[in-house]
Amino acid sequence: MMQNPVNQAGCVSAPPPHPTKKRRSFWQNISNYAQSGWQQAHSLWPHRRQRRHLLTLLILGTTALTISTTACISYFFVRGLILDNLKEIALLKLEKGTDEIDRWLSSRKAEIETIAYDPTVSTLNWKLVEPQLQRELYRLKEYFILSLTQPDGSFINTLGNRANSKDRQHFQKAMAGQLNVSDPLIGRSTKVSTIIISAPIWALPPAPNQVIGVLSGGIKLDKVASVANSLQYGSDSYAFALNSQGVPIVHPNHNLIGNIDRLAPSFLYSPDPALSTITRQMIDRQRNIELVKIDKKWVYVGYAPLKQVNWSMALVIPRENIESQLQALNLLTSGVAGLLVPAMLAAIWLIYCSENNRAQAQREAMLNRIAGRIRASLELDEIVQSTVEEIVNLLHLERAAFGWYEPQKKMLQILWESCQSDSATPALKFEPYFVGNVLVPSGKGEPIILSSDTLAEGVTQPIELKANSYLAVPVQTQNQPQGYLICSHATQWLWSREEIQLLKTVADQLAIAITQSHLYSQTQDQVKQLNIALNELKKTQTHLVQNEKMSSLGQMVAGIAHEINNPVNFIAANLPHTSQYTKDLLDLVNLYKQTFPEVPREIADFAEEIELEFIEEDLPHILNSMKIGTDRIRSIVLSLRNFSRLDESDKKLADINEGIENTLLLLSNRIKNRIDIVKNYGKVPSVECYPSQLNQVFMNLLSNALDALDEIDGLDKIITISTGVVRENGGKFLEVAIADNGPGIPDNVKEQIYNPFFTTKPVGKGTGLGLAISYKIVVDGHGGTIKISQPPGGGTEFLVKIPISNRK
Fold first, then answer.
1. For 436-445, 541-550, 694-703, which range has the lowest pLDDT when averaged over its residues?
2. Backbone φ and ψ of 591, nearest 5°
3. Buried b (16+ CB within 10 A) or exposed e, 127-163
4. 472: helix, coil or strand?
5. pLDDT at 646
């Protein structure tokens, strides 16, 4: 079968018909009409061009003068703003370095001050102090020596050297009660350039506010030098630091550096007046950045003071390092100035092209409007429906439609359409000839103009086609069937190249929008999956945070329990003896009363004064109260120890149901006939666990349930205990559920119930450790979970899951 030729518009043309005079006359009339219309349009062009040309010249002249003046003013204004911003950036870089040194010195001062407050150091006994200082020296890596100075200035350091620093300023300030940092000096014992940080040692009570000595630490200038070396702002830039006298303590030129013991010239007396002025402002602790000439070179010098010590730092930056960043502005200004004249010439030329561009602008505006409607939504139905509606309205078409072509069925299914009439278009069936000659070539991406001559003789058509009125534009989409954008005019129409190009662009935009809609649908599904994964991640994160919190608190309460246990045991051990001694003394007093009924007047008066009879009656009660309080403290300490020491015994196989029964037996006194216990025990295997610890968990949960039921008034008080085996995440767990029909736990409390010492019970009734211990036993000790929920009937339910060994 012969293929259709391609015309100049890039479209597939129909096979030529048999030549007839009638058809030649039709095309000749069309050609003459088009040519006359073109000549008429051009006859109006010179007049319009002349008027627009004169007006444009006037506008261009005025605009050029205005732009030139504005450009000069704007250049200097913008240049000043950019330069100020660049200078501020350089100054901020310097201040970042000074802040780093300040933080470093602040930390060192705090360390020395903390050591000076140590009671051992306050003894000034070197034999006691030296081990402490050696330990601190090992811990504090920044210090290489620590010294203890007596009030007379004699000191001994951790290197074993002795000397006297009575004339040192840092010693004198420390003896005056000041924590201070010295200027660099040469250590009298180490012979190394050092910064000394000194802190006063205060006398212990009862003699407060009295300085009895000085603790000093030596650190090197390496940190300050390191920070200064890091303050680079391009090549040939450098930083230096001055002390309060203007003497360099850090400088790239080591010959200029001085200290207290090695004098060096101060920059205040520099022969360079600019450097001398900068030094004066640094000594006055000012902050600024200036352009000055030092050593016959223009440089920007930024300076800022340190807060922790009376020093200042400066950053010297060559002028070109900062102003080189203005080159873009200079080039832009030069380019604008150089392009101003060509731009005016180009504008004049644009006048002659404006008429041609007007039609193009209209088409682009039309395209932008259509593209805007296409991009206004990510829903496929809305995208395609709005597209065909806009095409019909803007191009004044009879019909526009979109459909998917199914090669197997040779069917173009019209899914969305818009037309001027109210009639609907059914799905269009294409015959084999129609497919082979029209739609297959269109798969190459070129639109097809279909005319009545395209059809072979004897082929039945499902629709009536007018010559050159039908245009099919392929829509190439990713991962989608072949789509077609179909347009038709009400009458015979010559499709221009611009119209075809416009519809091709619309088809490209539509293809992108359809692909984005498909990706959006996929993204929505992925977002749902990510939300599910995020919720699971939050649950896991909460579990990990709780585990870490329990581990840290376990270590803390272990220390607390240990510290409290010893004095409590001492009191508890002596209380029985005290009670016995008191009883013996009271018996002795009664025996004296019986043996000597006649009591001397002085003894009788004293007995009445101290209220002997009341003491005899009240003293046993006091001792009994002390015993109760001691037992209470020991109970709390025992709870703390249980909370922190959950691995003291080995695991063994145990019957959980039996453990619950034993716990209920211990609580039988509280249960009696007041509360119904519903037991739903399942057939569960023995579990490898710490039986006593799990019994403690059951005891805590059942006790809390009993306390909750005591708060309500009613006849039906029920505790339900259920056990069974469940499978989760490929694992096997023994599940214990303990539920009550009490008042329940408020939502604002549920997040805190596992926190140690948190309790809603009255003072003296609960320690707040029961659920914290239970959580640690189940989660940390057994690798299980414990969760709280509210049953449908109300109340509270605790669900405990213990993993079952794979061997069982």
1. 436-445
2. -65, -40
3. eebbebbeebbeebeebbbbbbbbeebebbbbeeeee
4. strand
5. 45
How confident is the prediction for the chain on average, in pLDDT?
Answer: 76
Nearest 5 degrees, angle CA 709-CA 714-CA 715? 100
Greater model confidence, 383 or 228 = 228
d(C-alpha 736, C-alpha 761), whole Å: 25
Tokens read off for 458: 């004897």
Distance between CA atoms of residues 239 and 256, nearest Å = 13
User: Which CA distances in Å does 763 have to 172, 535, 759?
Assistant: 55, 38, 9
Whose structure tokens read 């036993």?
777
Specify the pLDDT at position 737.
94
Q: Tokens 């039709």 map to which residue? A: 26
CA trace torsion 705, 707, 709, 712 (10° rounding) = -150
Beta-bridged to residue 200, according to DSSP, are: 214
Query: Is pLDDT of 497 > 70?
Result: yes
Cβ(102)–Cβ(308) under 8 Å?
Answer: yes
718-728 and 676-680 as β-strands: parallel, antiparallel, unpaired? parallel
> For residue 372, what pLDDT is reported?
73
470-475 and 312-318: which strand pairing? unpaired
What integer pLDDT is reported at residue 45 of this predicted model? 34
Confidence of residue 488 (pLDDT cuts 50, 70, 90): confident
CA 742 from chain centre, in angstroms, equals: 42
Query: Average pLDDT, stretch 375-389?
Result: 75
Greatest CA span in the chain, whole angstroms?
165
DSSP string, 666-684: HTHHHHTTTSEEEEE----
* Consecutive H or E run containing 112: helix 21-116
Looking at 282-363, which runs of residues are DSSP E strands?
A: 288-294, 297-305, 312-318
Angle made by CA atoms 744, 670, 741, in degrees to the nearest 5: 20
Residues 191-210: pLDDT tens digits?
A: 778 899 999 999 887 767 88
Average pLDDT over residues 85-103: 90
